[in-house]
Fold this sequence. Notes:
Oligomer: single chain
Shape: globular
Number of strands: 7
Radius of gyration: 13 Å
Distance between the termini: 27 Å
Helix content: 10-25%
Structural class: mainly beta
Strand content: 35-45%
Amino acid sequence: MLLAMTPNSSHADSLKSTKSYSGVGVASFYGHKDGYHGARTASGERYDRNSLTAAHRTLPFGTQVRVTNLRNGRSVVVRINNRGPFVRGRIIDVSYAAARELGFVDRGVTQVRVERDS
């Protein structure tokens, strides 16, 4: 079940002024053996699979969020630098490095909580 909440609105412009964001859902990762490493992201920077970054549909580029793996309790702070995920039911795509830190590289996907506090 996908559950995403924002205090004011889910519209991207409203998120810029929103002080907090919290969502629970499925995370996946990209950038390992799929040709994305070194490619341009939606923000214009080059994707680095060894950086703690992520793709989110609406959060502004540069936003830092804490992603917590609900299966094992591990968490990591990532910076939003791309758009996605484009697979139904997923709320965030994290970099390969973030997936390693979160402990789900072997599984490919996991249940997470995504939180932003300003």
